[in-house]
Amino acid sequence: MLGWHVSVFRQRDDGESPATMESPEGARLAVWQTPWDGLSWFKGLVAASTAIDLGGDGYPIRYTAKAHNLTPRLLAGSPKAD
What we know:
21% of the residues lie in helices and 38% in strands. By secondary structure, it is an alpha+beta fold.
């Protein structure tokens, strides 16, 4: 099955500087597996300008967002989680 392994990390410097593709990972806050279309909710956050696509070549792909933009969705259950 095609899909994604999604991990959510706290930014190591607590967001004091903008995240980049090379930013070191802080504590892992959440993790789940999702089917191939399981990133559509995050792409919606990017389209709404509440998250930023940092790029990637497919593995990994990285996004950054403030916790208050992610928390409601994550508390509702991991999106499209298997």
